[in-house]
Amino acid sequence: MPVLLPYFVAALFFSSVGGFAGYRWADYFGRVNLMQCEQDHLKAVNESNQKARENIARAYQASDKAILAAMQQAEAAQAKTEEISHELKKHTTNRPCLSSNARGVLHTAAAFKRNAMPKHTGSALESNLTAAENSGDNASAVSTDDDVAAWIATATQRYEECRTRVDAIAQWDREKNGRH
Which residue, 55, 86, 131, 165, has most beta carbons within 10 Å? Predict the structure, then answer.
């Protein structure tokens, strides 16, 4: 047994050194792998943040374009409405064409409810509302072709305003999300 003791001590020594070296080696590679994971995570976060910033920038650009287009369409619609109103004045004769009873029926539509009407309605529509409210008091009140033409022009203008808003939203969506 005395002859084996130095071999046993040497084996114990070398296995201890090997174990310690193996531990240190594994610890080093573990730290390297952890740093690589952290760097990969930071890179992914930075890329995600960059994509978000680009997406927001595209949304602002699309929004600006859509608003500009909507404003241009609204101006064109307003100009067309004014042109139509002036032209209608040339071709209407202010003759009665809608009785107060017919007007009363038309003004029962949901669009003519006081709380549903926008604050900036056209004067022709407001005068028609006033006339409709007074139709019970004045059974002989009638709408003239001027009144009907003004109402139609106002309704057309409101439709164009609504269509312009919808078109602006669709344009923004196309540019922002690449939809066609």
Answer: 131
- Of 109, 108, 107, which Cα lies nearest the Cα of 127? 107
Rounded Cα distance, 122 and 161, in Å: 13
CA-angle at 161, arms to 102 and 177, nearest 5°: 140
CA distance linking residue 67 with residue 171, whole number of Å: 9
Element (H, E) at 35: helix 4-91
**Tens digit of each residue's pLDDT (9 = 90 or more) over 43-101:** 999 999 999 999 899 889 888 988 998 899 889 888 888 888 888 888 888 888 877 77
In the chain, beta strands by DSSP E: 96-99, 142-144
Domain ranges of the chain: 4-177
DSSP type of residue 120: T
* Exposed / middle / buried, residue 158 (Cβ in 10 Å: 0-12, 13-18, 19+): middle
Distance CA(88)–CA(13), nearest Å, equals 110
The angle at the Cα of 165, spanning 163 to 171, to the nearest 5 degrees, equals: 100
Contact 59, 109 (CB under 8 A): no
Distance between CA 109 and CA 112 in Å, rounded? Answer: 6
